Amino acid sequence: MRLKLLIFAVGVIFFTIIILNLTFVADITMDPSIPTSFSNCSSDWYITGYFTPVESDYFSDFQEITFGDETMQFKSDFLSVVKTEGWGKTISGEYVGWYDDSFHISDMPLDSHGEPLLVQYVAVDSEMIKQKTYLIIPSLPSPWNEMIFQSSDVGPSITGKHIDVYVGEGKQAEQETFRITSTENDVCIED
Q: What is the distance between the alpha carbons of residues 174 and 47, in angstroms, rounded to a whole number?
């Protein structure tokens, strides 16, 4: 009985994420400033995903970090993941970020332009795709293959034909990073 309830709960969570993503796709495509034509396509793109870890999902000892005059404590395994992913949601609800070789604190995760990081955003090599360009990746699994993304982020390991898709917060988002990571993808940018 417990197994059936667990399977049901996981199914409800996964279904909810898909519905929220499809709702988001419907909302963004209704925005008249978003292009609807993406015929400038190329192939052989490497797609990865990144997410915002949530500190309550981690279990190690605490480590002190100083921000200006304030010292705070965070779980060290959480901070390790933040160094890879860029931002993490703390137990207190704030976000800690890693860039410029140091930790930073914010009310929300931010992209490379200092704007709130949204699920529609991707990190790109700006030599390949200009920042603030809209694009689609039709070869990704659903619902990602139906989303219109915007290149609003960068990363030190994002070079060449590599796009890193922001997929949200928490362990379910982390699982999505594994699901979308793939090679030989098609990418189409706005006309």
A: 14
Residues paired with residue 18 on neighbouring β-strands, in sequence order: none
CATH dotted code for 1-191: 2.40.40
Q: How far apart are CA 148 and CA 29, in angstroms?
A: 8
Nearest to 55 by CA among 17, 30, 82, 19: 82
28 neighbors 36 (Cβ within 8 angstroms): no
Among residues 126, 141, 155, which one has the least CA distance to residue 185? Answer: 141
State the Cα–Cα distance between residues 66 and 6, nearest whole angstrom: 40
Judge if pTM exceeds 0.85.
no
Does residue 66 contact residue 75 with C-beta atoms inside 8 Å? no
Q: Which residues contact 141 (CB under 8 A, 6 or more apart)?
A: 179, 180
User: Rounded CA gap, 123 and 10, in Å?
Assistant: 29
Kindly report the average pLDDT of the chain as a whole number: 87
Instruction: Indicate the length of the chain as a whole number.
Output: 191
Q: Supply the DSSP symbol for 191.
A: -
Written as six digits, the tokens of 75 are 């779980």
What local confidence, expressed as pLDDT, does residue 83 receive? 96
